[in-house]
């Protein structure tokens, strides 16, 4: 169907009459019977191609449904995939160009201890249905781009800078683009072939690699920058990669007093879960909707919320009625009945039977 | 409580809790694709039957089409309310992280707002199961279902109220949270119910509009056939849900408890009460699906938030545990259990011979004990 038609169809399906007929489940439930990609509410996408370009990455091409509102270069999505019955939601940057309405691209680095990336590496097949948020994030080009863009990345942090580079290429950006990428070895650079082509065909793009696996080059140093672009201080700079790289780069920019010209994207936020004895004081508890922060003191989330003056709904206070179920955007919690720790982002937890096991955000 | 109920020591109760917690842990560890596929399959089947039923009712002037359409719609509503709605709202599938199967977000195809159901059922009924004075499901504040409920002349109408409740069950369930008996006796203020009345109104209007206005209108000349089909489907669902639910706690052999017995109760005693206060229904695979696996009421009451289709597999182990602790595992075929419930409804309508002195307070027109 052409876009115009799908827009009309969607407006009809989302109309009041159709909604009233589909009470109480909503139109999507019925649309799903015909095509699971169809929705009047949620962005869903179909994986149309999968490539494993380096031993520990998986690159997926996604075709989203009509609700996808587009992305700016450098943004990410919350990506949901059902694994063994559970919807796991993780953030991935969009690596594709933001110019034009092509399919989306995601490159995930496989974490051998991770749930989602490991599954994607071995089990994902074309045809897989995934759930997406709209694009999010501020790691994007400003409205007015100056004459020079500097993209520094390390490892899988190449994804958002790749999106920026591709977009600048596609919009025929008249300025200079300097790419400095850190990887362990040449074989670990996912987009090496494309970057080589880019440097060959677009004279305004320069691409430089530093390999941290070898002694000679090593990790980020200011000399690296000066060697390739002495005027880096004037550029719009972007950096994304492992924490060490981000720290080194942001320290350097701060020392030069030009932090306002640097944008940073962090792939990891939450600290590691605290794995000490149950009941031990651990981490900080953040009730984000009320803006209250208290130190975790080993009591249940419900008791701590109440002690902090909040009044979350509850019923049985023993974990059976789910009345106290609340959204936990982030952080590890321990089920007091089983001792099991869950550090899943974006999950529903019962306040009455969980204690914080590290820094935890609860959206109440 | 029935005299035959065995009393367990604190140690026995603790051991019982450990054994049941162990089964629970095994179940939780095993949750996965199979459960997700099962519930999504049931949802899809229900949706297909609903679409089929509504389509057939368009040709409802043709009696076989009307019959088939009404039957399909009835089954769709039953699946939606029992195996999907009731179980999803218990949080049985919350672990999947799927918003459409999340206990907090689910709405079902009946007039009772999901949020109120979760309060009266998941919390009040499942926490205080069969505690007279606390569990408002005992007679729904309307019927006399236990000998321990004090008799009043009002209860002479027990069978009549039961029939009315059965036929209009979805409305009865909706009004449940109002606690009409407590409103009439003045223990609850009418103004306190403003919020829930508004929810009831919204949900009631939407459901009525859909089944009794919009779909009939869409059928044009066949409006009457669609309207009657929808009404009968709702009625069939009402009778079915009432029967299954009343067989869960009211057949002979089920124990009730007093508030004193359950004060500060241990986890073991909670399990003990859940097992003694519930009754199973024997049946085949299809029966269990259509009853939302509430034929495994005992298993459901000890593990209310474990996917219900798994109760079947653990039932032999639960039964073995009951036998070992000398606890009554009440079960029987549907016909027998329904008969037992209705005999009780009739029997309890009569003034008990052993307690001739019934205090009659003129003001209260409806029973107050169950509140
Ligand atoms: C804005 C943003 C953009 C991103 N873009 C990308 C991208 O483009 N490409 C990319 O590859 N990554 C990206 N990431 C990072 C990616 O989201 C994470 O690496 C993600 O965690 C991977 O998911 P996973 O399921 O494989 O690992 P997870 O299962 O989330 O595990 C992550 C780590 O946490 C540890 N862990 C988890 N649970 C526990 C526990 N209970 N106890 C102890 N340790 C535990 C694991 O050992 C593992 O090392 C991005 C992140 C953000 C925030
Ligand atoms: S209050 Fe009932 S599950 Fe938490």
Automatic annotation (TrEMBL), chain A:
Lineage: Bacteria, Bacillati, Actinomycetota, Actinomycetes, Pseudonocardiales
Stored InterPro entries: 2Fe-2S_ferredoxin-like_sf, 2Fe-2S_ferredoxin-type, Beta-grasp_dom_sf, FAD-bd_FR_type, FNR_nucleotide-bd, MRET, OxRdtase_FAD/NAD-bd, Riboflavin_synthase-like_b-brl
Taxonomic source organism: Actinophytocola algeriensis
Cofactor(s) recorded in Swiss-Prot or TrEMBL: FAD
UniProt GO molecular function: 2 iron, 2 sulfur cluster binding; metal ion binding; oxidoreductase activity
Protein name: Ferredoxin-NADP reductase
Keywords: 2Fe-2S, FAD, Flavoprotein, Iron, Iron-sulfur, Metal-binding, Oxidoreductase
Superkingdom, taxonomy of origin: Bacteria
Name of one Pfam family that matches: Fer2
UniProtKB/TrEMBL annotation, chain B:
One GO location term (cellular component): membrane
Recorded superkingdom: Bacteria
GO biological process: lipid metabolic process
UniProt domain Fatty acid desaturase: residue ranges: 65-331
A GO MF term: oxidoreductase activity, acting on paired donors, with oxidation of a pair of donors resulting in the reduction of molecular oxygen to two molecules of water
InterPro entries to which the protein is assigned, alphabetical: FA_desaturase_dom (IPR005804), Fatty_acid_desaturase (IPR012171)
Coiled-coil positions: none
Full protein name: Fatty acid desaturase
């Amino acid at each position: 169907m052409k876009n115009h038609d799908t827009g009309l169809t969607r407006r009809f399906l989302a109309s009041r009459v159709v909604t009233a007929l589909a009470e109480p489940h909503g139109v999507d439930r019925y649309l799903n019977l015909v095509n699971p990609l169809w929705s009047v509410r949620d962005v869903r996408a179909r994986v149309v191609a999968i490539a494993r370009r380096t031993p520990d990455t998986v690159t997926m091409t996604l075709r989203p449904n009509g609700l996808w509102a587009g992305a700016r270069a450098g943004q990410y999505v919350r990506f949901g995939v059902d694994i063994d019955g559970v919807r796991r939601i993780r953030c991935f940057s969009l690596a594709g160009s933001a110019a034009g309405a092509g399919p989306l691209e995601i490159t995930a680095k496989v974490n051998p201890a991770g749930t989602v990336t490991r599954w994607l590496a071995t089990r994902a097949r074309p045809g897989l249905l995934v759930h997406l948020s709209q694009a999010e994030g501020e790691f994007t080009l400003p409205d007015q781009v100056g004459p020079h863009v500097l993209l520094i990345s390390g490892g899988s942090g190449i994804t958002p800078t790749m999106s920026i580079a591709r977009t600048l290429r596609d919009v025929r950006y008249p300025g200079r683009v300097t790419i400095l990428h850190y990887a362990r070895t040449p074989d670990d650079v996912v987009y090496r072939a494309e970057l080589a082509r880019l440097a060959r065909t677009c004279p305004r793009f320069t691409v430089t690699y530093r390999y941290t696996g070898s002694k000679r080059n090593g990790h980020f140093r200011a000399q690296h920058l000066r060697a390739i672009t002495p005027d880096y201080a004037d550029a719009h700079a972007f950096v994304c990669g492992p924490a060490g790289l981000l720290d080194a780069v942001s320290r350097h920019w701060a020392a030069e007093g030009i932090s306002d010209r640097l944008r940073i994207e962090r792939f990891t936020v939450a600290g590691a879960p605290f794995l000490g004895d149950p009941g031990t004081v651990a981490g900080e508890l953040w009730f984000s909707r009320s803006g209250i922060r208290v130190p975790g003191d080993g009591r249940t989330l419900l008791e701590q919320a109440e002690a902090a003056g909040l009044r979350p709904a509850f019923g049985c206070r023993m974990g059976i009625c789910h009345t106290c179920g609340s959204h936990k955007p982030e952080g590890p919690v321990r089920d007091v009945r089983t001792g099991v720790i869950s550090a899943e982002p974006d999950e529903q937890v019962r306040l009455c039977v969980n204690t914080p096991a590290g820094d935890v955000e609860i959206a109440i | 409580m029935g005299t035959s109920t065995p009393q367990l020591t604190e140690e026995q109760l603790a051991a019982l809790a450990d054994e049941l917690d162990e089964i629970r842990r095994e179940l939780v560890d095993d949750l996965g694709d199979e459960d997700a596929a099962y519930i999504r399959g049931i949802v899809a089947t229900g949706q297909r039957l609903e679409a089929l039923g509504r389509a057939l009712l368009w040709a409802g002037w043709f009696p076989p089409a009307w019959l088939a359409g009404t039957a399909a719609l009835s089954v769709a509503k039953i699946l939606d309310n029992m195996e999907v709605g009731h179980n999803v709202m218990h949080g049985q599938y919350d672990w999947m992280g799927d918003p459409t199967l999340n206990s907090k977000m689910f709405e079902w195809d009946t007039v009772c707002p999901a949020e109120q159901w979760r309060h009266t059922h998941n919390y009040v009924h499942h926490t205080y199961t069969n505690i007279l004075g606390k569990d408002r499901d005992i007679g729904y504040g309307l019927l006399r279902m236990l000998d321990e409920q004090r008799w009043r002349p009002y209860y002479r109408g027990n069978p009549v109220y039961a029939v009315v409740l059965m036929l209009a069950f979805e409305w009865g369930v909706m009004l449940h949270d109002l606690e009409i008996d407590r409103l009439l006796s003045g223990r609850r203020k009418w103004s306190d119910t403003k919020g829930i009345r508004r929810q009831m109104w919204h949900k009631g209007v939407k459901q009525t509009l859909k089944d009794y206005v919009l779909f009939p209108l869409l059928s044009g000349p066949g409006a009457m056939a669609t309207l009657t089909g929808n009404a009968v489907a709702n009625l069939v669902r009402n009778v079915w849900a009432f029967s299954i639910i009343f067989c869960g706690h009211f057949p002979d052999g089920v124990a009730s408890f007093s508030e004193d017995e359950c004060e500060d109760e241990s986890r073991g005693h909670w399990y003990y009460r859940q097992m003694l206060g519930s009754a199973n229904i024997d049946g085949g695979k299809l029966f269990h699906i259509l009853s939302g696996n509430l034929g495994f009421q005992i298993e459901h009451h000890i593990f209310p938030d474990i996917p219900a289709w798994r109760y079947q597999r653990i039932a032999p182990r639960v039964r073995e545990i009951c036998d070992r602790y000398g606890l009554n595992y009440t079960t029987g075929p549907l016909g027998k259990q329904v008969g037992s419930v209705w005999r009780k409804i009739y029997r309890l309508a009569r003034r008990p011979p052993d307690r001739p002195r019934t205090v009659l307070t003129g003001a209260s027109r409806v029973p107050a004990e169950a509140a």
